[in-house]
Amino acid sequence: MLGVREDRIAVPASLARWVASISELRSASTHGQTVVRLPDATSSLVIYEDARGAVRVVAVGPVKRAFYKSTASLGRYTRISFHPGKARLALGISPRELADQSTDLLALWGHSARPLFDAVARGTLERVMTVLAHRFEDATSIASDIVQRAASALEAADAESVRAIAGRLHVSERFLRNAFRDELGISPKRHARIARIRRVAEAAATGALPWAAVATTYGFFDQAHMNAEFRDLLRTTPTAFRAGEVPASSGCGVSQLRP
């Protein structure tokens, strides 16, 4: 997210196979501001305080397009993001069912979520990590491992085609596409698009390169192609994004999934 301070927390070794990153987010100011959530191919567990001060734990699926939300402040907010291909095993539901949505963890795990909620209530992230490591330790899936390797290949600046990656991993292209939808919740093409546009957004934030050079660097046909892709996935132009001129609010972007 942009518009807030993000502190990264080291992922413990016991969760390194599952968890890609852990972030704690805080508002940099108590004044009204726009929080930006970039498109994100990963699924995550989010611990946060709602408007009434109650602590909630929700599972959040991949976010296909950026959203913008006006907020005066951001309370306690911790995001535990899973590696591509690991969310279905970790959450017990296909990320395809969580795409652009969230659901309370109790709706997914039932009474087995209680140890995690107890750890959250005690306010120690270390205890939360211990509970998660114990829950995940025995889960495994061949498809999950293949998707993780394929996702890493698609995130490269000079990414191969889906067909080439499937061949290198000794699976059919159809198998890989189906595995992506089941294990990641989006198609390989969408995953590659999100990875590329996030790199453009980072370039927009730094302002180090002219736009024509950014388009060439990240494999767009030309600057017009990059602008169209940016507008589709981020709902604004690269120039406006760089200047901080983003929509005041486009809703929460992630709707609540009914159990």
Tally of domains? 3
| Rg measurement, Å | 19 Å
Silhouette: globular
- What is the succession of H and E elements? EEEEEEEHEHHHHHHHHHHE
Mean pLDDT: 85
Can you tell me about this structure?
It is a single chain. It is built from eleven helices and nine strands. It has 259 residues and is an alpha+beta fold. The protein has a seven-stranded mixed beta sheet. The protein has a two-stranded antiparallel sheet with strand order 3-6. β4 (44-49) and β5 (55-60) form a beta hairpin. It is globular and about 50 Å long.
Secondary structure blueprint with pairings:
Layout: E1 4-9, E2 19-27, E3 33-37, E4 44-49, E5 55-60, E6 67-71, E7 77-82, H1 87-91, E8 101-104, H2 105-109, H3 114-121, H4 125-136, H5 142-154, H6 162-168, H7 173-183, H8 188-206, H9 211-217, H10 223-234, H11 238-242, E9 255-256
Parallel strand pairs: 8-9
Antiparallel strand pairs: 1-2, 2-7, 3-6, 4-5, 4-7, 5-8
Descriptive keywords:
globular; alpha+beta; 9 strands; 40% helix; 3 domains; 259 residues; two-stranded antiparallel ribbon; 11 helices; seven-stranded mixed sheet
Short description:
This protein has helices at residues 87-91, 105-109, 114-121, 125-136, 142-154, 162-168, 173-183, 188-206, 211-217, 223-234, 238-242, and strands at 4-9, 19-27, 33-37, 44-49, 55-60, 67-71, 77-82, 101-104, 255-256.
